[in-house]
Amino acid sequence: MTYEAVIGLEVHVQVKTRSKMFSRVAAGYGHPENTLTDPVVLALPGTLPVMNKEALDKVIKAGLLLGCEIAPECKWDRKNYFYPDSPKNYQISQYDQPLCRGGFVEIELPGPARNVMGEHKRISLTRIHLEEDVGKLNHAEAVSLVDFNRAGTPLMEIVSEPVIRSADEAFAYLTALKTIMVYGGISDCDMEKGQLRCDANISIRPAGATALGTKVELKNLNSFSFVRDGIALEVSRQVAVVQAGGTVVQETRDYDGQTGESKSLRTKEMAHDYRYFPDPDLMPVQVGEEWKSAVRAGCPELPFDKQRRFQKEYGVPYTITSVLVPDRELSDFFEEAARLCGRPQAAGNWIANDLLRELGAATLGLAQSKVRPAHVAGLVRLVEEGAILSNAAKEVFVDMFRTGDPPGAVVARIGLGAQTDLGELERWCREAVAANPKSAADFKAGKESAINAFKGPVMRAAKGRADPKRVDETLRRLLAQ
Amino acid sequence: MPKPDDLRLDHVANLARLALTAEEKERFAAQLGDVLAYVQQLNEVDVSGIEPTAHAFPVVNVWAEDVPEPGLSVEDALGNAPEKRDNMFVVPKVVE
Amino acid sequence: MSEELCYSTISELSGRLGRGELSAVELMRAVIARTKEVDGRVGAFNSFDEGDALAQALASDGRRAKARAAGADGRGRHLEGIPVGIKDVISVAGQPLTASSRMLENFVSPYDATVIRKLKEAGATCWGRLNLDEFAMGSSTENSAFRATSNPWDLERVPGGSSGGSAAAVAAGEAVAALGSDTGGSIRQPAALCNVVGLKPTYGRVSRYGLIAFASSLDQIGAFARSVEDAALVLGAIAGHDCRDSTSVRKDVPDYVGGMAALAQSGRRWRLGIPKEYFGGGLDPEVGAAVQAAIDEYRGLGCEVREVSLPHTKYAIGTYYIIATAECSSNLARYDGVRYGSRSKDATDALDIYFKSRAEGFGPEVKRRIILGTYVLSSGYYDAYYLRAQKVRTLIRRDFLEAFTQVDAILTPTSPTPAFRKGEKSADPLAMYLSDIYTIGVNLAGLPGISIPCGFTRGGLPIGLQAIGQPFKETELLAIAGAYEGRTDWRTRRPRL
Questions:
Q1: Fewer beta carbons under 10 A from the terminal one: N or C of chain C?
Q2: Residue A159 Cα distances to A66, A274, C483, angstroms
């Protein structure tokens, strides 16, 4: 019998705000221990929460980008459990009235080859709610040390429906989700900084069945590849259990990406009783049309929509859009360059190939690049006008990247203007033909490729500055005589 | 409403993280049994169609703008810590 | 001399300070001396910081001198230099904050509650840490982990609670006024039992930031004072919206004293309601008689007195003990010995820290309420208890709002009995809970309430009259209380200590 996997992901994403969810001390990563606390964060006696408007705005934005229904009214609940990283020993969360419901994430599955677009699919969402992060436990030999810098950071939980069918789909889902969050400025989603965390609920069932199998919760999937590998491992583990005649036990398992193994953390009998109840310290949130419109006005175009538009409007191929689009700044950079030069394909090539290569080699981000869209557009125009040749243009690009000078200035400075003295070009061509009568005869006898034998000497004579198209025309004219 | 003898004292004390002595358990069971028996009278009230009151004077959208303010110094943050090390709070080793 | 000063009202002292007849330091010294003289018997204070109090008083004198030199008359700053006692559940930066619990025995708070910031801005001297029932849970102050406070009128009896220390301190002349907190009567009941004025403002009128939470949807900070006017002065200083408390209300703070005076002058004929459900069984006959006499006094003032009905009164205690304990079970989860608070020496693992620290740190009443609150919120019980209680709360609140369509205020006894003997009810929590019957509804409905002295039993124990006002109409409530107060001299009587 064949089995199919049924996977739902619970993704926690830290919302990018300057201050914390329920108090105004700064939020941040990488600060010295316990320097981002205040009486509220430490849950000192007498302190009260006050919600952060920006966090609400950003979760509404996430909801709008993901096609969710934004709740007209929602409230805050306390989730009661004791843990040393939880200062109040309850977490302020949203239980039965999440801020967003429904919606979906459009994903792209791996294509048959890297340069071929894969299948697109929509993964439905159950809900998105807002809550607060906990502190961090650092384990020493005999003790644990608690740092509350992270405690109180706004955290949204994005829960998918159990409609993910494979580890690859889960990976694609996270990739798409991250891209959208980063696009919206909602979160940086850096998994290494804990800004995105993922738990998976996994079950299997006979292929084609509709009933759900017993689910296992897989935790500590703390990188994109761990998510994929951990899920793949769990699916195969469950299939093996069932095929051996066993049954899958409902439990929580911990995946260790280093060893590639998972182990049971707790079974259902130890499940929590969180005693949710409405937090009396906080007032409900009402989201009217006006608020939603204001947030909508700040919503960017979704990445896949943009990719389709680039391909359709600009005729830029998938190989280029798949490089440009996942990075919002890069795609904006491209659009600006394309607008300035009117040659989107050429601009896209320069950016996706040369610019990214140079940035990579210099380990710089786009923001630090001295090459701006106007540089790219200018270069594209110079090539278009035949003022420089593409080989020379590559050299110009490298120079611009280093100096930040406009392309025209670079050309003037290093003298890479295309050879335009036609008399001289014709003389070089005549000399080349005269020096190689065999190839001239071959060409005249119909061997088309023989013409290439003249081009090297012409280019050498021209020190690379001859326009290959013009060289070709000139040679053909001379050989036809 | 459930029966008051259903207090499940051990389970509830576990949820509340309270170690109770045998004597406390006995006494609390009796005392809270009385209280729970007393609150059974709420069953008499017809609450159909009645909205719960969470706040006496409910308003909505009470928030602050996202502008950071200074927090506590590390010294103040750890000022009341029962045990501290390396500017962190010490607890016995936590194993999930 | 010293005792006279200590029993003066804020209005009197403010006048003398303003005229330069008295300095804040002299006043503070007198209060310190009085406290040292009587607190061994009264036990109102958990602690006091004499040096800090004198430094605050000295700073006040400095401000006054500076203002005078600048030509300001200092009028309007009634609390400048006045020692105001603070219930040990309200946070004062650099001072202990114990909630009268072993759990917080050594806790020193690094921040000021909003009311403390406001009192300091008004120039008041924040004075001492006043005893209470542990975490404000109780009606007798016997649940303090540190000491039982005595009623200054009979040292064998309780001062009421939970703000028993605040009430006793004002009654014994150890503070000119005091702050307390009221979740189910914790200001009004001890005020009644100690012959002082106790004002619980409308929920949301005063910021709770810095008040150790017992039951967040019911807690409210208020004032103990020697007169209704003094209570109005303190309320004026501490009231107002606070961006640190999401439940505090955005409403301007009126001039309570000016408003009271204007209403008194207007000769407005108040309509007063007497809830029939509040005069049934369990009401001590002497208390009942004193309250009836007070009602007659109002009739004599030309007020219109009529019977009203609060039909869900009998469900108030049950509703209260479900909601309050549920909220407290969660509010008190933070006391775990991890970041602060007392940590059990016997704890061997992380889980042990919770179980043992909380077992050692909390007293029996706190444990009982945590257990009850945890139970009513636990899986499968939430709807039957908590949700139902919140719905009954709606009905109780409606009763009051319905009554207020007919009357301006409601008059009731504050407590069914005068001060009881220490130990009399401590073994029977339910009996103790039932004594909150007249005060609890006010918290469930979020209304303002005030207790004012209205007589004494033959045995010399104080009796309180409660007036319940409409939401945010503290000025009217104070004016109504002041009208009666002006016709009697109960408030001027002093206990023999």
A1: N
A2: 12, 19, 61
Query: What whole-number distance in Å separates Cα of residue C212 and Cα of residue C196?
Result: 24
In whole angstroms, what is the distance from residue C290 CA to residue C267 CA? Answer: 25
ipTM of the predicted structure?
0.97
The pLDDT-based confidence of B3 (bands split at 50, 70, 90) is low
Q: What is the distance between the alpha carbons of residues C164 and C151, in angstroms, rounded to a whole number?
A: 8
The amino acid at C190: P
Closest-CA distance, B23 to chain C, in angstroms, reads 11
Tell me the residue type at C50: E
- How many CB atoms neighbour CB C100 within 10 A? 33
**Residue C434 and residue C60: Cα distance in Å, rounded?**
44
Cα distance from N-terminal residue to C-terminal residue, chain C: 16
C466 contacts C295 by C-beta, under 8 angstroms: no
Q: How far is the C-alpha of A382 from the C-alpha of A328, rounded, in Å?
A: 27
B85 touches chain A (CB under 8 A): yes
Separation between Cα atoms, residue A436 and residue A450, nearest integer Å: 10
Domain B4-44 has CATH 1.10.20: yes
Region at A404 (left for phi over 0; alpha for psi -120 to 50; beta for the rest): left
Q: Round to whole Å and give the CA distance between C164 and A45.
A: 20
Neighboring chain B residues of A254 at a CB cutoff of 8 Å: 96
Mean pLDDT of A125-140: 97
A216-233 residue pLDDT tens? 999 989 899 999 999 999
- Residue A88 amino acid letter: K
| Cα–Cα distance measured from residue C446 to residue C219, given in angstroms and rounded to the nearest whole number | 9
In 3D, which of C138, C274, C217 has the Cα closest to residue C394? C217
Measured CA to CA, the distance from residue C182 to residue C451 in angstroms comes to: 12
Residue C162: asked if its preceding bond is cis (omega within 30°), the reply is: yes
Q: Are strands C83-87 and C177-182 parallel, antiparallel or unpaired?
A: parallel
Q: Residue A92's closest chain C neighbor by CA?
A: C330
CA pair distance A21, A76, nearest whole angstrom: 12
How do the domains of chain C map onto residue ranges?
2-265
Query: Which pLDDT does position A270 carry in this prediction?
Result: 61
Question: Going by C-beta distance under 8 Å and a sequence separation of 6 or more, which residues neighbour residue C476?
Answer: C263, C270, C408, C409, C469, C470
Residues C463/C192, Cβ–Cβ less than 8 Å: yes
Tens-place pLDDT, residues A39-51:
999 999 999 999 9
The CATH fold assigned to C2-265 is Amidase signature (AS) enzymes (3.90.1300)
Chain A residues whose beta carbon lies within 8 Å of the beta carbon of residue C334 = 43, 45, 87-89
- Least Cα distance to C442 among C205, C163, C183, C192 occurs for C183
- Radius of gyration, CA atoms only, chain C: 21
Question: Among residues C186, C227, C248, C329, which one is catalytic?
Answer: C186
Amino acid identity of residue A245, one-letter, is G
Q: CB pairs below 8 Å between A and B: how many? A: 124
pLDDT of residue C37: 97
Min CA distance, C354 vs chain B (Å)?
A: 6
User: A422-480 architecture in CATH?
Assistant: Orthogonal Bundle (1.10)
* CA–CA distance, C171 with C174 (Å, rounded to integer): 8
Residues whose CB falls within 8 Å of the CB of residue A164, separated by 6 or more in sequence, listed in order: A5, A6, A7, A8, A9, A123, A170, A173
Task: Sort out which chain C residues have CB atoms less than 8 A from B54's CB and list them.
Answer: 217, 390
Domain ranges of chain A: 3-294, 301-414, 422-480
CB within 8 Å of C196: residues ≥ 6 apart: C167, C170, C171, C224, C225, C226, C453, C491
Question: Quick one: tokens of A136?
Answer: 């961090």
- Which segments within C309-420 are labelled E, that is strand? 409-413
Per domain, the residue ranges of chain B are: 4-44
